[in-house]
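Hi,

I'm pasting everything inline rather than attaching a file, because the server keeps stripping attachments. The sequence lines come first, and each chain or strand is labelled.
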Amino acid sequence: MTKRGNIQIAVYAFVCLVILLLPFVLGNDYLLNRIARYLVLGLLAMSLSLCWGYAGILNLGQALSFGIGSYCMAMTLKLRTVPVQTGAGGLPDFMVWNNVETLPWLWVPFHSTTFALLAGIGVPVLLAALLGWFMFKGRVTGVYVAIITLAALVVGNLLVIDAQAYTGGFNGLTDLAQLELFGITFDAYGRSTYYLCAICLTFSLFAALALTRSKTGLILQAVRDQENRVRYFGYDVAHYKSFALCVSAGFAGLAGMLYTVVMEFASPTFMGVPLSLSVVVWCAVGGRSSLLGATLGAIIVAGMQNVLSEQRAFLETWTLIMGAIFVLVVLFLPKGLAGLSEAIAGRLDRSRPSALVSDAVTVEKNIALPEVRR
Amino acid sequence: MRAASNHLQLSDISVSFSGFRAVDGLNLGVARGELRCLIGPNGAGKTTCLDLICGKTKPSAGSIRLDTRELTTLEEHQIARAGVGRKFQVPSVFRELTVRENLEVAHCKSVGVFANALRFGRSTETDGLEKLAELVGIEDRLGQPAAYLSHGETQWLEIALLIAQNSELILMDEPTAGMTAQETRKTAELFLRLKGRHTLIVVEHDMGFIREIGDVISVMHQGRMLAEGTVHEIEADPEVQRAYLGSGGISHA
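And the predicted assembly:
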């Protein structure tokens, strides 16, 4: 057990190290910005893996938390732009176009970057707590959770689009200032932004890993397995599930904030249904019950999406290819890429006459599971 | 039997499922440290009775008290925290978790989500859990997912989970179903050891098992308490014999 645990930490550390060292190999700023974007999407997929893979809560509205985080960051950065066309007291340009005369109360606290950073994580967490409390106290489970979270996402998306005078509507929030923290300016096409994303991802991966290995993480996995049985051991299942939903929303909010920094704008598509469903695909491809698997799944799939859609040959067929990959993974790799790598590791362990035979047997048996079930 | 000093007291409990009265004005009192067997023909309401105590089913009338605490208004996890553990008829363990992890889930000092989020060190607990696995003979399977256990071993694991949970009152629904004669005997020994430290209510069909463990037996029939007494008294009771008519008599039930 502990040997497997240490290998897991080593693999996580290795991947994070590769990510952190990448700028030394890549000199291309445009490419670096793009990879930073994939890292953020990886963080988003990891957040879903935490509640879907570990607690069995399929949150189809993960992009809601992501979008809120993104808008919180965009609002504070918008207030820092030197406006080209401005109203009284540095009113954002789109508000002037929409005949708004004073800064709405919702925007006022965003003059403080600290507030924005706290809100970018805090608001999604509070929303998740509220939603979780309603759903899990009422013992809503399975597909109904998916439907409710999806509905919440659509509502949030419509509200943002509808309140054009306050949110920029379809256009989102554009023409933002660059984020400044601790005297560092985060230029979207500079290394600083890349490192910001890479460090946030590393920190989040290890924080989430620690959570999954705590007793709460164990109980969440028990809830995923047999929710009703857990109650009879004295645990309040609603608390545990709400907690998982909240932590997941917090990480998604952080990802959203970073996304605004990397993309230099916020848009209602950041809390759109297509993005939210893509996250589910990324998790499925990478392996939803592996935090690192989901992260890499997002990086690989989103990266491929981008590369394919820019090739002339695949201009019209790239969505088809992505769909085919998804179907193949679901059919043949129910545990995703993470499951595949575990299986390969198990094979290697078996072929090598190891001193720790019992450990190898454990690993191997763990891998045999999906095959038995199929 | 309705003394106020009873550890568990069910008074005039009724429940119906879409018109069918599964339990109808049931009274049952169990003293602290007692091992009580609950028997009765199929459909007598034995499992429903356990469901009512552990909160899985809410009664339509009556009260259930554990010492001075009223259980009927509590949720399942609150009842469990109040000191009630339950083994289900169909063995119910966490199949995707290893045996060791199963035991860790069952053995908990604190149930709060935040306290447990900061709990990593398992070294102090592990020793006791290994001994527990040894007690029920699954110590060499600690690292394996519970899904790989045989039916008998799964039964043992769930019994071990209940011991790990360390509840004052343990409800066992057909704990020996699917066990060999030898395993059944081992279970009987284990229950006799638990008696005194814990209060046990055991629903069982196997009369041989009941003869080994039971002091006082309660017989249910059609949602009511039909008789209460020692094995000999129950077997000689004409009403009990009548209730079991058609199912081959009590000894073959």
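The radius of gyration of chain A is 22 Å.

If the labels don't parse on your end, tell me and I'll reformat.
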